[in-house]
Amino acid sequence: MHPSSPRGRLRDALLRVGERGDVNEADLRAAVTTALRELASEALGERSRVDLVTVGAEDHPWGRSLGLRLADHDVELPHVLLHADRSPLPPQVQESCPTLRQEEWETVLLVSKLLLMALQSEPEPVRDGAAHPPQSTPRPPRSVSREQFCQALTAIPERPDLHPDELTAQLRTALLNFASETPDNKEAAHRIAVLHTGEPQQGPRLCLSRSGLAFAKAVLSAAGCPVPHCVLEEFPDLTQDEWNAVIQVTGLTFTAFEAEPAREVG
């Protein structure tokens, strides 16, 4: 069944980025950017900068993979967030989310990076002396750990038969299998939970376990905050609009993996 809501269409498009087989990159790019624009129009209006993000390829020594990138800066979104994960809690975010603590903000940034990494494709082996086809590229299937993480995320909006505690347990296990059991990752896994929060009609979503603050709300509240110094040290040419685009696309991605709010009857 084709997703009928903006968040469902974005979720569907993002999950296709990492699917195996022959993929037309131009069609995939169009599907993701169209879905991003649609959800951003609904959630952000004129503040949206998501057009600065595209789906593109990254060539590594170990292979070539597709993922979300800044179109003009030519850098993967997870790589930008990697350099932000120790940044101070912005005052603007503290004002919007007064219960949020510094260590929880670091968890939000760490899980944001892992979320975007999980949605990338597995690296395609580099062919010696062969140019990559410009449009259609065969790719390997997701690794077991990446697939489990994607499935645990997808279960939040798509498995209403599962109790939030079960969704939480699956997600924590999948996160650590995907990201490895470092002390930081273990602390982050302990701080996340799938919860019904907010108004009575709100469905399950990824939240901070202590406060119940939704990841999507925490991330989107940072849009407009100055680019962290630790990010500028690595990317001195990164613009404020590009940083806003990273934050907005990350927040919308969390939104895409939230359950639809229940419609009020009457």
Write the layout of secondary structure elements.
Blueprint: H1 6-16, E1 21-24, H2 25-43, E2 53-60, E3 63-70, E4 75-76, H3 77-82, H4 91-96, H5 102-118, E5 136-139, H6 144-158, H7 164-179, H8 183-191, E6 192-196, E7 204-208, H9 215-220, H10 229-234, H11 240-256
Antiparallel strand pairs: 1-5, 2-3, 3-4, 6-7
Helix pairs in contact: 1-2, 1-11, 5-8, 6-7, 7-8
Could you explain how this protein is built, in words?
The protein starts with 5 loop residues before the first helix and ends in a 10-residue tail after the last helix. α7 runs antiparallel to α8. A hairpin with a 4-residue loop joins β3 (about 65-70) and β4. The longest helix has 19 residues, at about 25-45. It has helices at about 5-15, 25-45, 75-80, 90-95, 100-120, 145-160, 165-180, 185-190, 215-220, 230-235, 240-255; strands at about 20-25, 55-60, 65-70, 75, 135-140, 190-195, 205-210. It has a three-stranded antiparallel beta sheet with strand order 2-3-4. A two-stranded antiparallel ribbon has the order 1-5. Strands 6-7 form a two-stranded antiparallel sheet. It has about 270 residues and is α+β, with helices and mostly antiparallel strands. About 50% of the residues lie in helices and about 15% in strands. The model has no long low-confidence stretch (mean pLDDT about 90). The radius of gyration is 18 Å and the shape is globular.
